[in-house]
User: Which sequence fits this backbone?
């Protein structure tokens, strides 16, 4: 079974608007970590934000926030005030069972 | 800042060649990883290492081997390259903390084409 599911292969957003990238996960471990990475066309994977399974509050890092709904096993990334430089592939990942698992990614395009 | 450096951005090799992909990190991280990335498949773990001279198979180790003789360097080896190993290869390193909080830092990737 897929550990991480990203159902949106491609997304478009108008510059300065907010966008939500979906991520659902599958684990029976009580302790796990959720991560989002950005991969621009240059290829490097850039860490964006982390959410621990026991964290009570949703993680935030600047314009990035993670909408963590534990009961629904979802960890959606919200990007506020989109910028042209946000155009990239975005990967959701989970650490569980002593291993990292990545989703298949969502391609985000920011339209001027 | 953590720096993970992969020796080549692009490589073109012929079928049957032995290929070395090198990765060096400068933050004294214990854990290092090799992934391959293919469209529609995301990142798949090939091998990882928790310490010098230690290695563990990931999800797709067939056709690959690794070497970790020094803490900062983790090499991926294709003993006899095949066309189905044409892919983007990503190296990552991670501090050995509680692994549920371990952030992986990635190199820029090596795009390998096997002809």
Assistant:
């Amino acid at each position: 079974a897929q550990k991480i599911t990203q159902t949106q292969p491609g997304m478009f957003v108008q510059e300065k608007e907010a966008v939500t990238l979906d991520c659902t996960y599958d684990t029976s471990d009580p302790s796990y970590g959720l991560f989002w990475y950005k991969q621009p066309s240059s290829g490097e994977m850039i860490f964006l934000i982390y959410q621990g399974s026991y964290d009570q509050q949703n993680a935030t890092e600047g314009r990035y926030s993670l909408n963590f709904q534990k009961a629904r096993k979802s960890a959606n990334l919200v990007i506020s005030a989109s910028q042209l430089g946000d155009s990239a592939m975005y990967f959701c990942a989970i650490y569980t069972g002593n291993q990292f698992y990545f989703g298949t990614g969502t391609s985000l395009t920011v339209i001027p | 800042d953590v720096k993970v450096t992969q020796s080549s951005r692009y490589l073109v090799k012929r079928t049957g060649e032995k290929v070395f992909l090198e990765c060096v990190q400068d933050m004294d991280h214990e854990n290092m990883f090799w992934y391959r990335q293919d469209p529609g498949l995301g990142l798949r773990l090939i091998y990882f290492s928790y310490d010098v001279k230690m290695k563990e198979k990931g999800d797709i180790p067939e056709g690959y081997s690794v070497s970790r003789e020094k803490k900062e360097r983790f090499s991926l080896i294709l003993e006899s390259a095949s066309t189905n190993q044409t892919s983007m290869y990503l190296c990552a390193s991670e501090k050995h903390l509680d692994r549920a909080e371990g952030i992986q830092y990635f190199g820029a990737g090596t795009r390998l084409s096997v002809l």
